[in-house]
Write a structure and sequence with these properties.
Elements lengths: L14 H7 L2 H4 L3 H17 L5 H19 L12 H13 L12 H37 L4 E6 L2 E7 H26 L1 E2 L15 H7 L4 E2 L3 H6 L2 H28 L6 E2 L18 H25 L11 H25 L2 E2 L1 H9 L5 H10 L4 H18 L8 H7 L7 H4 L2 H6 L9 H16 L1
Helix pairs in contact: 3-4, 3-8, 4-5, 6-7, 6-12, 6-19, 7-10, 7-19, 10-11, 10-12, 11-12, 14-15
The structure holds arginine.
């Protein structure tokens, strides 16, 4: 096929160079956005008297028929085309003849691609937002069901203080709420229209950029035509949002993998989200969580790849920028798949409350509460901390726990100890007495659940 730009050349493009240059095998997924953008562009050209009403009607009909045929499978992408923009334009000319050649007036592929990718990302971000909300809802429901389930909370992966499983889960819900808002913010910033920037310098035609921007659902136009075609910061920002989502999913995955091990046995994943081993008959592996953790690497990599691609580029458009698409498309596909698998995996996960409780009974996780007990009776915290530390040492040496040490023994350490201490250091009390805002206490967890419920309503 002759290139549209063949005019100034004496030779055809080398076949391998042609394949190397072509982006249609990945940018064809923006066909709808490309056609929509072209429809609005033609309407603007007609409104401004740059093309006639009849020419516009012809173009619109041609573009509609291309869209229809692509959707119903009557037309397939010509992999010989350089990219989706060239494909649509040449198909249009094939269908309506010379009027098709008027579509590209006052436009360049440089602003066209900058437009298409924004339109595409806007829709994808909408879907990712929906998947995030679904996951947040699943976590909220799981938290609701586990408000009384006590487990050890950890720091340094060492048992630290008793918490409820609901509280732990809600921490992730909060993170995913911020991920949702982060995408919303980034889309808001991205949502300015580059079309009309043309190759880089704008155009001599009397175009109406504001009209196109409004028609295409943008907040306004990009104010600088060079910026309009050069910049991909919105891709970087969104890819960093996606990387952050993956980071959160990956931490969650790591915990699910640990919790599923025989060493923890805090949860059991549903059979439908686990796999067996080809050699060890007893195995039930948390492959989905491992894959999510593993795929986080490629989403980070995509971000780094595009940052690196862009760092040395002079303004305005350079072909290097074609590399933005595969990176961001892969990140989008990966995040969507991971979110889609995560929500039902969490929803069907069985919580082994008894094992969580037994683990909470070991490891002296009520030691802080015992120190606080003394503080409330007038002892300075540092002194109380020291006494309890010595008591823990005593317990370890004698193979016992704080709950089992007789009161007479306690009295040897401090006269302030009384038999009410046993109630104070029961796991239930440790949780119930956490009254500070945001804490693991029952009231606070209820408020957190309400917060998430309100968030989901917005
Ligand atoms: N396929 C190109 C891309 O994705 C479209 C823009 C091409 N512009 C150009 N001047 N060659 O970046």
């Amino acid at each position: 096929m002759d290139k549209m730009w063949a005019g100034r050349f004496n030779k055809a493009l080398n076949k391998e160079a042609d394949d190397f240059n072509s982006s249609i095998h990945f940018d064809s997924r923006m066909y709808k956005q490309d056609i929509t953008g072209s429809m609005v562009h033609a309407m603007m050209l007609s409104n401004q008297g740059i093309i006639t009403k009849d020419e516009y009607a012809d173009i619109l009909k041609g573009l509609s028929s291309i869209l229809e045929d692509l959707e119903n499978g009557e037309l397939s992408f010509d992999m010989e085309a350089e990219d989706i923009h060239m494909f649509v334009e040449s198909e249009l000319t094939k269908r309506i003849g010379d009027n098709g050649k008027k579509l590209h007036t006052a436009r360049s592929r440089n602003d066209q691609v900058a437009l298409d990718i924004r339109l595409y990302l806007r829709e994808e971000c909408d879907q990712i937002g929906g998947l995030l909300l679904k996951l947040i809802e699943v976590i909220r429901d799981k938290a609701k069901d586990n408000q009384n389930v006590i487990m050890p909370g950890y720091t340094h992966l060492q048992r630290a203080q008793p918490i409820t499983f609901a509280h732990h889960l809600l921490a992730y819900a909060m993170m995913f709420c911020r991920d949702f808002d982060r995408i919303k913010d980034a889309v808001e910033r991205m949502n300015y229209c580059p079309i009309g920037s043309c190759a880089l310098a704008g155009t001599t035609y009397n175009t109406d950029r504001a009209f196109e921007a409004e028609r295409l659902g943008f907040n306004g136009i990009m104010m600088n035509s060079i910026d309009g075609v050069s910049d991909r910061d919105f891709c970087i920002e969104l890819m960093s949002c996606f990387a952050t989502i993956m980071m959160h999913l990956s931490r969650f995955s790591e915990e699910i993998i640990l919790w599923s091990s025989w060493e923890f046995k805090f949860v059991e994943l549903d059979d439908s989200f686990t796999t067996g081993s080809s050699i060890m008959p007893q195995k039930k592996n948390p492959d989905m969580a491992e894959l999510v953790r593993g795929k986080t690497g490629r989403v980070y990599g995509n971000l780094m790849a595009l940052l690196t691609t862009l760092k040395g580029l002079p303004l305005a458009y350079n072909k290097d920028m074609q590399e933005d698409k595969e990176a961001i498309f892969d990140s989008i596909d990966t995040v969507k798949k991971c979110l889609s698998i995560f929500a039902p995996m969490i929803a069907t996960m069985n919580v082994l409350k008894g094992n969580m409780y037994s683990a909470a009974q070991k490891g002296f996780i009520n030691a802080t509460d015992l120190a606080d007990y003394l503080v409330k009776k007038g002892m300075p915290f540092r002194t109380a901390y020291k006494h309890v530390g010595t008591l823990v040492g005593y317990c370890i040496e004698n193979g016992t726990v704080l709950e089992e040490v007789p009161i007479e023994k306690y009295k040897e350490y401090s006269e302030l100890f009384d038999s009410d201490l046993y109630n104070e250091i029961s796991l239930e009390t440790c949780v119930a007495k956490r009254i500070s805002a945001g804490s693991t206490g029952y009231e606070s967890v209820k408020q957190q659940i309400e917060y998430i419920t309100e968030f989901l309503k917005k």
